[in-house]
Design goal:
By secondary structure, the chain is α/β, with parallel strands linked by helices. It has helices spanning 12-23, 53-76, 84-97, 104-114, 149-156, 165-174, 192-202, 220-233, 266-274, 291-296, 300-309, 326-335, 364-378, 390-402, 416-427, 467-474, 493-506, 518-524; strands at residues 125-129, 182-185, 213-216, 242-245, 261-264, 285-288, 316-321, 340-344, 354-360, 382-386, 407-410, 433-436, 449-454, 484-490, 510-512. The strands form two sheets. The protein has an eight-stranded mixed sheet with strand order 1-8-2-7-6-3-5-4. A seven-stranded parallel sheet has the order 11-12-10-13-14-9-15, sandwiched between helices. The structure holds adenosine-5'-triphosphate (ATP). Residues 370-521 form the Helicase C-terminal domain.
């Protein structure tokens, strides 16, 4: 969350909290109080903490079905035990022993939370035009966009000066007259949200009191994040009104919305359009954020199609995503007529500056000794240790703390506030070792980390080597010309095979290291 996002509003926490309490179904504790800034005066949220009969029915049915399914899945693996308490204990235990996995929408939200500010990308923009007659401009500053003065003030008030790469090409297209459709791809943290939010705000005609701009996000939490950016950027435009269309938001039947912008999730937006709370035909700008997550997510694709079918043919389409799988791209190109397609190629992590090692052990205890031995010998800078399950992470943290190490732990059972606080402390260097599960598989950016330890090697759900996650985990150490160290702890034949697969995949030697040989260990730090 960056400079546009944080906007303190003391009254919000409790309102928000009442909504998300109903929406938490997955691993992460996303309480609404974790978004202390999400409700702003720009957002009319009269119904945020109460449910209308109709929406209660719709949302509760879905909520109950999801929850039942989750519980059934868990209980299927639990033996029948004599008391409720024992059963609950088993479910909890099961959670702790299961590898931490996150859905694409959760991973996307995590990446935003974990990331600090914008992500640098030195690649240049690729542009594709279906219609060669569409004019194409590029700008270097927000001033060149001829924005309304108060909107420009809202963009610049936090010290933002020049446009980012994706914004240079996307913004003139998004603001062009006649409007042009755009499909944009650029990795997380490169300025997409800021670009489309600015376009949304600048397209509003405040003399018309009905929804003119619709922005869809895959989840409640992601919609809230976009809303925060919008509220922040529209700080000096009090006349622009916005509304969240998310679970828990209530609009009495017969109401006609007067807000200019709706930011929401597909299910709620569809409900509201069915009940004629607003008219999809009057929407002149449609934004699909996280297009890949949205279209890949079961149920969302159908809902999106239903919404898209009801938009007017002159509605401007803006599709944004960090990635577009081939199928998603085909789908999107089918829907968006004559788009300009802009792509900023992902800046990949690399293993060039990283010395990789593999340590053989036969059990947890040996793994522990190896890690503390190596860290104790090399121990300058900070270390991140990746574990497969919450249980291992907790066990390791306890052992290391007992032995006098300053250790922080991150796993999927933290609230967003706790996660941010632990990461901030680690970034400040207050703890030297960070133990984590897959929560931090990608997105983490801590410059002073010199050692990454894979206490458990990254594998996919079928136990095969997950090379992409490996690259994300260790590719952050050897940056800015520094040398990083990656230690892979291997305790079985399977783990050794995973290690060999990774070595072959990247064609980079993973050296064998004897964790008992302190001379050898000393050498790796030089
Ligand atoms: N022109 C700019 N100059 C400086 N900072 C910017 C600029 N535009 C956006 N930012 C900041 O960069 C960070 C990332 O921007 P933004 O959230 O728009 O990226 P994103 O590509 O939408 O990321 P995600 O896909 O995770 O949502 C934010 O902190 C934002 O405030």
């Amino acid at each position: 969350m960056g400079m546009f996002c944080f906007w303190k509003s003391p009254s919000v926490g409790s309102t928000i909290c009442s909504v998300l309490t109903y929406t938490v179904t997955l691993h992460f504790n996303f309480l609404l109080s974790d978004f202390p800034n999400c409700s702003s005066s720009k957002f009319s949220s009269s119904g945020l903490n109460s449910f209308s009969k109709m929406s209660q029915k719709v949302d509760w049915a879905k909520y109950v079905a999801e929850t039942e399914q989750n519980i059934t899945n868990k209980l299927n693996t639990v033996e029948i035990s004599s008391s409720e308490e024992e059963k609950k204990e088993k479910v909890k235990e099961n959670d702790e022993n299961a590898p931490e996995q996150f859905s694409p929408a959760e991973a996307s939200l995590l990446a935003k939370i974990i990331r600090k500010g914008l992500v640098e990308n030195k690649n240049s923009i690729e542009v594709q035009r279906k219609d060669p007659k569409s004019p194409l401009y590029s700008i270097k500053s927000f001033e060149a966009l001829n924005l309304a003065p108060n909107l420009l003030k809202g963009v610049l008030w936090n010290g933002v000066q020049c446009t980012l790469k994706i914004q240079e090409t996307a913004l003139p297209t998004l603001l062009a007259d006649p409007p042009q459709n755009l499909i944009a791809q650029s990795q997380s943290g490169t300025g997409k949200t800021a670009a489309f939010v600015l376009a949304m705000l600048s397209r509003v005609d405040v003399t018309q009191n009905y929804p003119q701009v619709l922005c869809l996000s895959p989840t409640y939490e992601l919609a809230v994040q976009t809303g925060e950016v919008a509220a922040h950027m529209a700080k000096f435009c009090p006349e622009i009104e916005m509304k969240f269309a998310v679970r828990g938001e209530e609009v009495p039947r017969g109401t006609k919305l007067t807000e200019h912008i709706i930011i929401g999730t597909p299910g709620k937006v569809l409900d509201w359009s069915k009940f004629r709370v607003f008219d999809l035909k009057k929407i002149k700008v449609f934004v699909l954020d996280e297009a890949d997550v949205m279209i890949a997510q079961e149920g969302h694709q159908d809902q999106c199609i239903k919404i898209l079918k009801n938009l007017s043919t002159s509605c401007q389409m803006m599709f944004f995503s960090a990635t577009y799988g081939q199928e998603v791209m085909e789908f999107v190109e089918h829907i968006v007529k004559n788009p300009i397609i802009v792509r900023l190629k992902r800046e990949e992590a690399s293993l060039d500056n990283i010395k990789q090692y593999c340590v053989r052990c036969s059990n947890h205890q040996e793994k522990y000794s190896a890690v503390t031995n190596i860290y104790g010998t090399v121990g300058v800078g900070q270390a991140i240790i990746f574990c497969h399950t919450r249980r291992t992470a907790a066990w390791l943290a306890e052992r290391m703390t007992k032995d006098g190490h300053a250790v922080a732990v991150i796993s999927g059972d933290l609230t967003v506030e706790q996660l941010i606080s632990v990461l901030d402390r680690f970034r400040e260097g207050r703890e030297k070792v960070l133990i984590t599960t897959n929560v931090l598989a990608r997105g983490i950016d801590v410059d002073q980390v010199t050692i990454v330890v894979n206490f458990d090697l990254p594998v996919d759900t079928s136990g095969k080597a997950d090379c992409e996650t490996y690259l994300h985990r260790i590719g952050r150490t050897g940056r800015f010309g520094k040398v990083g160290i990656a230690i892979n702890v291997v305790d079985s034949e399977e783990a050794m095979n995973v290690c060999k697969t990774i070595e072959k995949h990247f064609n980079k030697k993973i050296h064998y290291l004897d964790a008992e040989d302190s001379d050898e260990i000393e050498k790796i730090g030089n």
